[in-house]
Amino acid sequence: MKELAELVRDEGLLELDQEMLDSIKKHAPPLLGGMEAGIYRRSLYHAAGVLYCIARTAGDKALYAFGSSAASTPFGDLQATGTEGVLARRVEMSAAAVRHLWELFPFAKPVSLREERTTIGMGDRLGVASAGHIRAARKYRCYPVLAQQSLRELDYTGRSFADVVADASFAVFQEGYEEGFGADADHMKTIEAIDTALGENMPMITLDLTEVLRPEVAEWSEADLAAGFGALDARLRARFEADYLDINYKAGDATLTLDRVELARCALLYGAALDFAEKVNNHLKEKTGDAYDLEISVDETTTPTLPEHHLFIARELQVRGVTVNSLAPRFIGDFQKAIDYIGDVDEFDRQFAVHCAIADEFGGYKISVHSGSDKFAVYPSIGHRTSGRLHLKTSGTSWLEALRAVAMRRPELYRLIHQKTYEYYPEALKNYHITADVSGVRPLEDVSDEELPSYLEDPNWRQFLHISYGGLLNDPQVRAPLFSFLHENEEVYYELLEAHFDKHIGLLGIEKA
Fold first, then answer.
1. Chain segment 111-126, per-residue pLDDT in tens
2. Is 60 part of any domain?
3. N or C: which end of the chain has fewer CB within 10 A?
């Protein structure tokens, strides 16, 4: 702490008002001082006569409070530092401390982004990527959802929703990002899990309807569909027939019609799921006072969402009063993890246009693109057809950029990670759908240190690295060296992330800020 206190004294930071501190934030490089003892320029803020900032040493990073005289802070009293005229308090950037940070600086707390046109989910499995995400996002007229994790990811990484939100909030403070950011509890399937996320200030709930859909209905015969539909409540059946049967609905240039067979299929396949969505929506209203972003996800299916089915889902959500922020259909083609789109790009564009028109006609919600990492071939279509009204969800791509940094700067560590991936990917395959072929991956012993980053360009190996994060992050030979490397080389990592997401957002055609 003494070196940081000396830096505060030598830079005269305690004598500067907020306007003068703001002028310092505009300068490069990002740190005042150096990697051994440095203060992040954009994190310099005054509150109640105390200077707050995030600073780093060779070994760690923390929030600091500095003052020239005795003072109390929400984190405790300032203490002597061994530097004359500078008192300080070091604060671990924890889930407990972040609530005090929000009291002092509300911009560091996640908010609902329902009214914002373009939102980008930037999943951070490591908890150290958000600064790079922010540096890319602030160049564009979009809003980042920085805290984004599913229960499966939490289980694999050993984190909690509280950890995820805290890591994002402190990164927001570090980067001085005051425009607002979101927090997404992804793939929620129960109200109990939703309440846990809400309790940790995650205003976005992605409701995964997989377990309440009836996918078997898609294969039923016409006779079975007629029997199932006939068994529904008579009043509900009558409403469905009055609202949908052989009625032409316009969606852009398309005309969509449900005949008796397809109406029965929709009612039976989606009925229970829509009931649950309505229940969750009412619960969110009661718990949050309408400050929430509800995403409806029907993308975890084996077949694409037909436009007629999307119409039925969208209109039913509207009829039931569900406040939909975004909806994720299952699109044509293959959206595999962290590689480009697999399929006919022109056909994707034609069908995607219809999905966008349905969203415009029935609620005006954002189309959400799941497994959106690195789908560069279809980004221009997605951006154009939505006119930027969209939610793009990415996750593992930031983990892969960390491994790219390792491959570039620490070849011996990358080689260890590479070898251990062979141990972990077979178990990971039970939970992730990929079609990568490990037999086509170039043997590690044939690759020079300089060539190691090329593994991150191999679509096969890229996917195996992507899905093996849980095993690798829990491996004691990998975890500590990896996080130590990322701390020592964080600007390398931030630059890779910024460039990678700059490519994502730029190809979508999002307007520059």
1. 999 999 999 999 899 9
2. yes
3. C
